[in-house]
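ugh ok fine here u go
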Amino acid sequence: MNDEYDPFPRAEDNSPESSRPELPEPRFEEESLAGAGAEEPAAPEFKDYGSPSPEPPPAEPPREGTPWDRRSQSGFVEAMIDSCRLILFHPAQFFRQLSPTGGFGEPFFFFIAFSILVSVFSFPATMLARIIDTKLTFTIMPRYLEWLQSRNAPAGLIDLLQQAFAGSPRIQDVLLQQICCTGASPIAWVILLFVIAAFYSVVGLLFSGRIDYEMVFRVLAFSEVARCSWIVNPVPTLRELVFFLHWFILLAIGFKYTGGMSTGKAILMALLPLLLAALLLTCCCCGSFGLSLFSGMAG
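structure:
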């Protein structure tokens, strides 16, 4: 026999381990030594920007403007009539359209034009009111003097009143006085406009909102429309009372919608300077009357 005889034959190795491919041995020592000198990647930095800031309040949409602002398209007469009608019957709508900024020129021009017009058109009613007031005063005053004498009033006061109301003025004198007052009234109203606007702007520092001299001036200029009642109202004292109440209401509405105030603050701001002015006027009148009475008694 050519083949050698093997007394210990081997069985073929068909186990799964024998079929696995040989894997390279891991080099833990080399890799660990190679990576020992490498730097670890730095962690990303997180900057502290603080708490997120609140979003700014949305800007107020632009106002469409009043009829007086659009008089270049509609004309002077129509703009004047539309503005007066809107202020008289829909004041909230008008003052919503009125911007708190925009300068002094436009409202001042309206104030001047309206003051001249109302002085001219209210002349008959104002003249009649002055005549009625004069007649009533010189009719009631003698009876009032008799009542003071019966109450043993100071002689100085009685003499002072008798000199002031010695004789009733003539109609011609009343007419001349009224013509002079009609011509001077717009000038006096312009001066009062600037003074009252300054007074209200100082008081406005106590309240929040867009309260400054410009805004107050613009509201006051257009609130003068309350004087329209003088054209048809010839009753003395009542015409001033109606004008004052209407003017006060327009001021409160204007401060609310044009100045961005609440209803309560707008009413308080419109009322507070008037109360202070009334108190100051009362003190001045009482002081003047007391001084005149003391001078009459001393004389």
